[in-house]
Amino acid sequence: MRTVKWNGVYPAVTTKFKENGDLDIPAFLKNIEHQIDAGVNGIIIGGSLGESSTLTHDDRLALLEATVAAFGDQTDVLLNVAEGATTAAIELVQRAEKAGAHGFMLLPPMMYKPTDQEVADYFKTVARSTKLPILLYNNPVDYKIEITLPIFEQLASEANIQAVKESTRDISNVTRMKNKFGDRFKILCGVDTLAMEELLMGADGWVAGLVCAFPKETVAIYELVKAGKIDEALEIYRWFLPILELDINPQLVQNIKLAEVMTGIGTEPVRAPRHILVGDERKRVIKILEDGIASRPILPDYKNL
């Protein structure tokens, strides 16, 4: 079985579409190539940023198979699983395992506010349907379900539940997890605007959004922090923050796709019901990106620290 290390930068990649809404696999793979060249440690397909709610199981598997075929020997390839029914989650997990997935990001049950016990049982049941490693997604801000410490206690015996994407927006939750569980669960920051702070508090990795448009800058921050070069990392991070704030916005997909276009490594079409940015909001985002690109920092040799 493939071992996922759960450290480094894991882009939650955008899904590329043609103007008619069909998948654009060549554009999708072009962006992933830039991620790998920058030194990321894994790819997460079909997450919130990947327009998960508009993707069918067949869409997800097509993206997965193309990524594994092109880059599976170079990086971890994870598929997001966000389902309303346990049976649907198991079906997708088992199909994806056969298609070559290296692991999964797993959300709590969607479209229903479950009890804590229902959340725990859902995760256990899905985990037991596969041998592949799992990253749980803890995002009570957007999904209204928190994976609490007592839930994690129940899940600690499930060997393939190995990590959590920490998106509670509470930096101290990193310390709570470390105090309670030590290194049992790897912790990956899931909020771009808190990434350096959580890395300094002991997070193992970063599930990133703006990495889709700025892969080298994102990986450089991670590598500099882990090498103890905090001042160098902070200089890049402070430059990056106005751009990173585009990730904590209801239109994060549109924002980041526009950023990908402006850095030359993506396309802008989205799948309905989304629309691309227009009007004053588009002008506002373009101004942020133009200012950032004009002052883009010169990066150190972050791959050889």
From TrEMBL:
PANTHER family with a match to the protein in the record: DIHYDRODIPICOLINATE SYNTHASE
Binding positions (pyruvate): V207
Native source species: Zhouia amylolytica AD3
Name of this protein: Dihydrodipicolinate synthetase
Database matches in CDD domains: DHDPS-like (cd00408)
EC supergroup of this enzyme: lyase
SMART domains per UniProt: DHDPS
UniProt KW Lyase keyword: yes
InterPro entries in UniProt: Aldolase_TIM, DapA-like
Highest taxon in the source lineage: Bacteria
